[in-house]
Amino acid sequence: MRSMTGFGVSEVPLDGGQLSLELRALNHRYQDVRVRLPAELAEQTFFMEQLARGRLGRGRYELSVRVTGAAATAPRLCAERLRTLHRSLTELRDELAPGAELPFTALLALPHVVEPATLDTEVVRAALTDAFSRAAERLEQMRRQEGQNLTRELLTRLGNARRLRQELVEHADGLVEHQRARLRERLARLLQGTDTTFDPARLEVELAILADKSDITEELVRLQSHFDQLEAVFASDESVGRKLDFLLQEVGREVNTIGSKCQSAAVTRTVVELKAEVERMREQVQNVD
Predict the structure, then answer these.
(1) Is residue 21 classed as helix, strand or coil in its secondary structure?
(2) Which of the 8 DSSP states describes residue 42?
(3) Rounded distance, CA 283 to CA 156, Å?
(4) Residue ranges of the domains in the chain?
(5) What percent of the chain stands above pLDDT 90?
(6) Alpha-carbon distance 75 to 51, whole Å?
(7) CB–CB of 26/286 below 8 Å?
(8) Hey, what CATH class is 6-73+120-143 in?
(9) What pTM was computed for the model?
(10) How far apart are CA 25 and CA 8, in angstroms?
(11) How far apart are the first and last CA of the chain?
C-alpha cells in the first residue's frame, strides 16, 4: 500500500550545465498533472505531461524544472526583426506624430523580438526523461514508506473495530429476548387498568415479528467479512485507495443498520464507538493511492 503524498528530486547534466527536477504528489480523487518548465524548455511541456501521466497514478502532481550553468544560455535578440520593426514604426511616427519619441524599450517589448535560447530537442528530452525517472523513483520510495506507516495505523484501527464488533456479538445473544420482554412490559403498562383483552397467540406473533426486526446477526456476519477483506487489502502492493473507500462505506452502512435496529443503551454506546473508528479509518484512507 502506498501513500498519495510524497516528494522526489533529481539532478542530471545538460549541455555543460545542470537540469534539476522536482516532483510533488498530493491527494486528489483523479489524476491531475501540472508542469512548470523554464522558457528555454517550454516547448517540452506536452512531452513532460504525457511522460508523467504514463508513469504516475491517481493524485495531483506538481512537476517543476530548473536549468542552471552553461545550459541556461542567454536569450537571442532577433536583430533583423528589430530593424524591420524600427523602420516601420519610424515611418508611421513620421506620418502621424512627427518628432514624437520612439523609445527603444517599446521595441523590445514587442512579440518575437527576444527569443529564448534553444537546445537540441533530443538531448533535452533524454535529460528530462532521465531526471523524471530518478525523481519518480525517489517519490515512490517515500510513498511506500508513508504507506507502511498508514498500514500500521489502519491495522490498529481495524483491531479496535474487531473488538467492538465482538462486543456487539456478545450483546446480540440476548438482544432478541430483551426486546421481547421490553415489548411485553410496555404492552402490560398500556393495558393496565383497562378492560381490554387480546389474543395471546396474536400477541406472540406480533412480538416475534418485532423482535426479529431487532436481530443483528446478518449485519454482524457481513461486518466480519468486510473486516477480513480490509485486512487483506491493507497488505496489497497495488493501488487500493478506491477499494478501501468502498469497503469502509459498506462497513458504515452495516453499523448504521445495527444502530437503527437496537434500542439497548449498551449496544448504542458500542455502535457510537464503532462509528468513530470507521470514520478515523476513512480519513486515513483518503491519503491512500
Answers:
(1) strand
(2) G
(3) 14
(4) 6-73+120-143, 76-114, 147-285
(5) 32
(6) 27
(7) no
(8) alpha beta
(9) 0.66
(10) 9
(11) 7
